[in-house]
Amino acid sequence: ALRAQNQLIIQRENLALTKSNLDLARDRVRAGSASNADVFRWEASLASARSSVLAALAVQQQAYDSLNRVLNRPVGTVPRLSMPAPDEPFAISADDFDTLINNPRRFSWFVDFSVAQGLEQAPELVELRAQLDAVRRDVVARRRAFWAPDISVQAQYSDNIDASGLGSGSAFDSVNDWSVSLNATWPLFDAGARRSQLSRAALQERQLSTQISATVQRIEQNIRAFLLSAQASYANIELSEAGAEASRKNLALVSDAYRQGALSIIDLLDAQNQSLQADLSANNAVHDFLLDIVNLQRATASFDFLLPADVQVQRMQQFRQYIEGREARRLAPGDSQ
Question: Which of 116, 145, 250, 289 has the maximal Cβ count within 10 Å?
Answer without folding.
Answer: 289
